[in-house]
UniProtKB/TrEMBL annotation, chains A, B, C, D, E, F:
Natural source organism: Roseococcus suduntuyensis
Family membership: Belongs to the HpcH/HpaI aldolase family.
Alphabetical UniProt keywords: Lyase, Metal-binding
UniProt-recorded name of the protein: 4-hydroxy-2-oxoheptanedioate aldolase
Matching PANTHER family: 2-KETO-3-DEOXY-L-RHAMNONATE ALDOLASE (PTHR30502), PHOSPHOENOLPYRUVATE CARBOXYLASE FAMILY PROTEIN (PTHR30502:SF0)
């Protein structure tokens, strides 16, 4: 299965990414049919763990939509990075990468030798490998995406982006605001934060890597694609469900 | 906990009912906070079984919303009717009740002696019973709601409604259309079906019992409340999620 | 593994039986180490379904206690009777057996040909069969135990007990009281009910089969053993936990 | 997705069918990549229930093998037949169909009006429907396959096969032997049973419907294809695993 | 929902705390109705992981008892601390905090900026936030409670307690004894250990923070409240169940 | 229950070890009856997490085979090492131990004081302890087995093996090859790698500790026993199932 995110990025295009917080394969399967280019299991803030991530990956695959499965790991820790890759993730988004060393660690956990120290044993991923063999292509195919979401990360941004093996970055707007002493929120209009976005777009673009952003609404996500972001997420599936449900109740009551 | 549906019906008011197809307590909990008067676990067409129903009931209760938990059982069978009531259902919606005998069977399964033959052992339900004791009030508190969704049921409607212990009916529009040789659908405009609705509203109203309807959209549900329905459901939680997601993808792509 | 209940009954002894309502193998495993002769998974009023029953059976076996696994099925239905036997039940307790025909149905569901029509495929049970083969001994080894818990069953008692293949009966005191218009309760002192117990003990004893009883307290259970009951259950594991917890809180508060 | 079994049968070819007893989506997914034309979740004798069946269906779909998902239901009961079809089964194998009435009941449960009384709500199945809509094609696409596995069924065979809507039959060799007073086994050589097979092949062939058989070994299955069977199953996945494991231990020990 | 533990501590009162080892929401729900002020999911030594913790939190909430949900994390690791807080924990008990640096790390993981580096995304916790918003009050509301259970921790106790953000400590008596070369046990009478308790009570009291203790029996727990402990736990739910069960079997046997 | 691995090693014998990747207790139970001396739950590359490990341990115990339960942890991290030991592991295999410090850390996490810092609370393990008490014998009974699978580990091998508390080593052939720039594979014939095996056998033998190896086929495993390995694993259960299934399909098709 081709990595749609990687292909889009090569073609200079943006992807619209789904986000799974509900630990259920049926929910994941239905959601994956909605047109997302990729669907990410959120193991950090979502109600997800490793086995629910595997179940969601199966739901994504079962949907037949070709959506690329990715994961946000709970933390920059080698055990879980290896496990989600073995389960078939085509991309790893890692929270709170604040220094070049942390970025280098992430790359090391996610890449087979000689680029890294990932252990061999792609239990589910290997079953779907290309003809040349999963291990031969994994280092190229799998996206390594640190989250840039703190003041410290912004201050270190050039060194972080220079770490070999980084394919893109993902911005967590609410943590970023929080770390600058602002109220945490998505879809920010604060010029201070928007300036940071511009800087990150420039620095990533300069290095031929992509920038992604978590958004609260599809309208804002669309604006961010136009601004230059190459991966946009809209809330998560439970957030969309809750918003639609509240509206449905209101309309039904009249 | 009061039965909101029963209270509303006593007051002549309509309730807006949620519908759970995703077998997950977290999803159920979040959904239950959206303003529904009652939330029904759909064990017939939803991806639900008995243990997921219990989990969803816990999600509904955990939400603190006071939404009344109900269930649609997969079939008119005494084992499962007893089990969902023991788990804490305040109402049982039963599919495909086509004759007075089937309606009487349903009542028998759902009521303690002498009204019925339900077996005693409200493992979860009893823990939340009123001061007078769960067993003393269950026959009054718990709603028995056969689904009227076939030509045969319509032909038997008066005898079905006359069965003692029936608190209301619930119409499945797509099965009803199907059984008359029409294309199965929700939110019907076919005058033939709408005439049946009118007849059912008249016959239930005459007997002081309520009529409920499954709807596809909140707008139609609102119209049906105005027409006289006392319980309206809008699709289910996964349907609302899918519709919202497809729209989000479209808007994000621009 | 020998059937401890059958062996005890042959020796004229009573067994102390555990009762599982929590659908969890760890809980079942710990509980099974407490000295019970047999442990019954309650699929009727317990929070149990088929897969949790299998998990509990594994917990019982894992405990190494040699406690005999039994099950109370949710209803007298051939599908579930076959499934729990395939999973390794050594005894089936079936609720609400009120007529000889219902008793004969139960026997039919639980026995291989020619005694019954149970389908062959003991997926888990067969793996632990005796040298002669599970299928060759199952009809003898597995206990068929209808519940006697209604006025109708009492009125039919001799004919029910005469059904070939019945190994014992199990009395549900609260349903029995309920069906006679009394308040449902365990550990009854009402002479009317106690007279029924005496009659059941006499009729079962006459036929060389055993009578069992569900009890609320171990003291009452002990008294019932002395009265002649050959299988006594004490509440269930969650009931014992709740009682112990309430007491612990009270003592800790002083 | 095309129904591979139906297509093969139309073309006069036999299918090799997998059989799932382990209630786990990962196991199902890996097994589904092994070349089976169809994979059947065994809810009767396998350690499976409704939700594990859904999970296995997702595993089958996630495998990308195009194997057609089918199910053996635990019993001829309308609730479960409807639920597994809603979950996406392309074929229903039903145990212990012994009379034309039982066969007609099965057809009724599995077909939408006017051919039957299946209720509308294909929660998972509908999401993968053809352009014309799942409901419009389901009655044609979904295979209804009663099991012929008792003396009584053999005696009624012509009338059973004449029931409209039957697409094939499936023989359970061990139950068939059992019901004739023989030792239950697979891969029988007893001429008496083989004669029955011949008769069933003749009667099905005459009516243009298919006959399937459960086998213990692939060698026997191959022979049965040559004999005329159009669907052959080989043990189940756990049986293959156990046999391979015992052999591996033996070889490793030397 | 108010934090009962925090309120009690403000008022100078002790709380009686429950402890969950069984990974099941039903068990947790029933146990939570027994009068505990708070209920802690034990992810270190209990049979619990992140998703079972979420399920238990839902069970606690569903009980309607108002018991405050807390967690003992398996280790002092930022990923899991963030996840349990997002799930709705009102307090984090962390094992084996032996140095001020480890205590400071724990505070950092558990607090939003500027007090710490917890990442924003309270998926379940946020849904129940106060009017002012969960993020605005979380740092104040959530209790950070390191376990003091080694010789090293005792030697560093003043520096540990001086770490800003520590709300209390929790003593693990068996590990504490173990680290001093004594036999590990609860409800110790060894004057050497009791002297340590006195010292810990004095040092915490001096700083206006609370001391908690794990107990084996409610009698000892009551004594410890009188000694000055502000949070006492009694064994866990499975321990109480096992003790009650062993006793029930003994009494039933006579 | 005796530790079969330890006993065999004391007697100078080799053990044949099973390997579980499927997160299911039924599958584990059936597999554990196949003759393995020990069965290891693979939490690194298997589709396993902590709760599935507990379930598999129950399956192993329920099998009654006496197979010794072990685990490969996902990473050298104290939280998970403690949890699997509390769950009843008799041996811990830890991936990627490359330095004496890492080996010493592993020992520290796995041993009670004074040999290490493992926290006391053997929730499931303690229930099966010897008469003298689980805590008194655990440090002796439980095997600590670092994986030697990198160039760095080979370079540090003598210092690693000299770390007190190491009972054996386990070689991961594919990672070992990978780290030397070779293609990752099992059952290697490359003399360079085989020389490393010889060296490891010599160094372990010299110190009276055992060497284990992961194998792809039972034939190779047998050869390795002859070469001196004291623990050999053959693929895993899902690998054996897949190989057997592919072969069955091929044979059935003819």
């Amino acid at each position: 299965m081709p990595n749609k995110v990687k292909e889009a990025w090569k073609a200079g295009k943006a992807v619209v990414n789904g986000w799974l917080a509900i630990p259920n394969a049926f929910s994941a399967e239905m959601y994956s049919q909605c047109g997302w280019d990729s669907v990410t299991v959120d193991m950090q803030h979502g109600v997800q763990d490793y086995l629910s991530c595997v179940a969601c990956f199966q739901g994504i695959a079962a949907s037949g939509s070709g959506a690329t499965p990715m994961v946000r790991v709970p933390w920059n820790e080698p055990g879980i990075v290896g496990k989600v890759l073995d389960a078939g993730a085509y991309g790893v988004i890692c929270p709170m990468v604040n220094t070049p060393q942390e970025a280098a660690n992430l790359v090391q956990y996610a890449k087979y030798p000689p680029a890294g120290t990932r252990s061999n044993g792609p239990i589910r991923a290997g079953a779907y490998g290309s003809a040349g063999g999963y291990q031969a292509t994994a280092n190229d195919e799998i996206l390594v995406i640190p989250m840039i979401e703190t003041k410290q990360a912004i201050e270190n941004i050039e060194a972080i982006l220079d770490v070999p093996g980084i394919d893109g970055i993902y911005i967590g707007p609410s943590d970023l605001s929080f770390s600058y002493g602002l109220t945490p929120k998505l879809d920010v209009e604060d010029p201070f934060i928007l300036d940071i976005y511009e800087k990150l777009l420039k620095e990533t673009s300069k290095r031929g890597i992509a920038a992604g952003l978590h958004n609260g609404t599809p309208e804002y996500a669309n604006r961010m694609i136009k601004m230059g972001f190459k991966l946009v997420t809209i809330a998560n599936e439970v957030g969309l469900m809750v918003a639609a449900s509240k509206n449905a109740v209101k309309v039904a009551r009249g």
